[in-house]
Amino acid sequence: MARKVCDFCLRESKGLFGAHETLKDGHHMCKNCKDIIQSYGLPLKYDLFQCLVTAQPNMKEMIMDAYLEKNKPDDCLTRHYPYPQILMHEGEHCVNAVKATITVKTDLIPEGQAVTSIAEIQKRTIHNIPDTSERTGNTKVTGMLYETEAALYFVSEHIINCHRLGYMQRNRKENDRVCVVTPTKTFTYRIAHADLFYLRERFFQKVNAKRQNKGQHLIYITNDNEIRITPGVYDIPKSLKPGLYQVKAIKDSGLHIRDALGRVVDYYESEKSIHLRDGGVLECTGEYQLKWIGESTDN
Questions:
Q1: Rounded alpha-carbon distances, angstroms, from residue 257 to 39, 133, 262, 281
Q2: Tens place of pLDDT for every residue, the chain, 299 residues?
Q3: pTM
Q4: Which of 54, 95, 115, 189 can pair with 120 through a Cys bridge, CB separation 3.0 to 4.6 Å?
């Protein structure tokens, strides 16, 4: 009898206790992939994010691109990014909605009730209370962390924090937090599975770029060292010369560097520069001003 192959990790079944489970849709799943998917709180079925959390790191980008080739962008938005229970600003899509905690100084917590919907959040209703590492005089505040294409919101009973997406630190080893670092403050939100949080963000950016038919990139040259790039994919050195660049966001909707091995590094606004290496790719889903400031620092 032919051995079953796990449709997620491609491992063959082995023996009686290593038998694969057959899902309702006919796909096969090994015990290891089942445990991983359940640990993320995802349904046991063959779908995009189930494949992503069980895939090798160097395969995740390819899986997202292949999925987009087979599915329409609007269908992807409807299926994977449904509107949450909370009322949002007109035109905003909910990319992520997860339970989160932040530890802040107790005496900074307002006494009054905060607004209860994203649609009500305005400049006067935002507190932006940072985290604290002090052992005394602090309180752990629980709320919901919402990400849209416009901002990152922390909504709790008494605190509303709102951040520009460019201040999120995406390339961290910790998988239990979302960190926001501004020039003056730090915000650390503890969540479960930050990797899935950023996978959802990454796929949303790809869907939105395709939805708006932004496959044709454009480079506007200011002078020899300054350019403006629009959504698209830029090969290095074919489109952009290698080296260090200062970045200024015109529309901060995503800037990603993919090296020759397929590893992806995300740009965030608190960084002083980005490093574009020969053989890599710069993926842009927003609009940015780049200024070349020097040669590569590679030895």
A1: 30, 32, 9, 6
A2: 457 899 999 988 876 656 789 999 899 999 999 999 999 999 999 999 999 999 998 899 899 989 999 999 999 999 999 988 899 988 889 999 999 999 999 999 999 999 999 999 999 999 999 999 898 999 999 999 999 988 999 999 999 999 988 788 876 788 999 999 888 999 999 999 999 999 999 899 888 877 766 555 668 787 778 998 887 778 888 888 899 999 988 877 778 888 777 677 777 666 778 889 888 888 887 788 999 998 765 54
A3: 0.80
A4: 115
Q: Are 291 and 245 in contact (CB under 8 A)?
A: yes
User: Which two tokens mark 293?
Assistant: 């400031």
Beta-sheet strands, E only, within 149-205 = 152-156, 160-163, 168-169, 177-181, 186-190
Please report, to the nearest 10 degrees, the dihedral formed by the alpha carbons of residues 21, 23, 29, 34 taken in order: -90
